[in-house]
């Protein structure tokens, strides 16, 4: 269980809590005083306990306590039942690719685009954006460096579609693929850019060290590789921790 991504462990904790409560109620062991709204609260407590037992961080306790209340409110609402799977599908289309990597969707700012452009070598250039999102950095670089080649890999279908459409006029030197960043061989790239989250950084570093050629550059926006000193940091405006970390292979 501890090896599963946190989101699956949270789902397992909720299902377990629900089944436990159901079994107790079916067996006639749930006192009348604890039925109704109180049972929803009990489910939250059971789910939070199970979640901690499954190794979830304390930050999951509040969502697990509150989710049964939210589900109860939704089930009582007048909206037709098909709206919930539809909502789930839309969420998966936008955020699904980052669910297991534990990477949400947010965007590099224009200062990061400009800094990346400055980092691109003057000679032959192949650049990869791992988790391309809506393709902002990719389009900016491809437009300003027609002599280079720019590839974005994006796992969530909706951001992929936006990035693909956005870079359509730049097809001569820019491509966007729907798929996992873990499947891309980094050997062919001079600059690899990632704006992900703290969770995948150790694995990304292992991959980069295995695949990237000596002298090439791994650039991480905001998230440091634990235990590795970057060659340089480029501060960015905006959030206090915003900066580009440069790791030379
Ligand atoms: C923080 S956004 C960065 C977007 C873009 N690179 C930028 O800087 O504006 C991270 C993106 O990585 C995508 N992502 C997360 N895990 C991924 C994976 N395993 N493979 C490909 N893309 C992934 C997410 O869907 C999200 O769109």
From TrEMBL:
One of its GO terms (biological process) is methylation. CDD domains: AdoMet_MTases. InterPro entries: FAM173A/B (IPR026170), SAM-dependent_MTases_sf (IPR029063). One of its GO terms (molecular function) is protein-lysine N-methyltransferase activity. Keywords: Membrane, Methyltransferase, S-adenosyl-L-methionine, Transferase, Transmembrane, Transmembrane helix. The chain crosses the membrane at residues 43-67, 79-99. This is Class I SAM-dependent methyltransferase. The lineage of its organism: Bacteria, Pseudomonadati, Acidobacteriota, Holophagae, Holophagales.
């Amino acid at each position: 269980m501890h090896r599963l991504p946190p989101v699956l462990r949270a789902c397992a904790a909720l299902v377990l809590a629900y089944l436990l409560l159901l079994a107790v109620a079916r067996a006639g062991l749930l006192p009348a005083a604890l039925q109704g709204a109180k049972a929803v609260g009990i489910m939250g407590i059971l789910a939070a306990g199970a979640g901690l037992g499954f190794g979830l961080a304390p930050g999951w306790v509040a969502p697990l306590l509150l989710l049964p209340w939210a589900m109860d409110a939704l089930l009582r609402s007048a909206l037709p039942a098909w709206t919930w799977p539809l909502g789930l599908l839309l969420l998966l289309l936008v955020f699904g690719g980052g669910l297991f990597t534990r990477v949400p969707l947010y965007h590099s700012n224009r200062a990061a685009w400009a800094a990346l452009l400055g980092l691109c070598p003057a000679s032959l250039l192949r650049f990869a954006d791992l988790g391309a999102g809506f393709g902002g950095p990719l389009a900016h670089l491809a437009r300003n460096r027609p002599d280079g080649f720019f590839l974005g890999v994006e796992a969530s279908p909706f951001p992929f579609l936006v990035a693909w459409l956005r870079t359509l006029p730049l097809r001569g030197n820019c491509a966007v693929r729907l798929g996992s960043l873990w499947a891309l061989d980094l050997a062919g790239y001079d600059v690899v850019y990632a704006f992900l989250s703290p969770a995948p950084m150790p694995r990304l570093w292992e991959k980069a060290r295995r695949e990237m050629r000596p002298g090439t550059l791994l650039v991480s926006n905001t998230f440091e590789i634990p235990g590795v000193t970057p060659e340089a940091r480029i501060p960015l405006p905006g959030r206090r921790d915003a900066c580009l970390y440069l790791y030379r292979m």
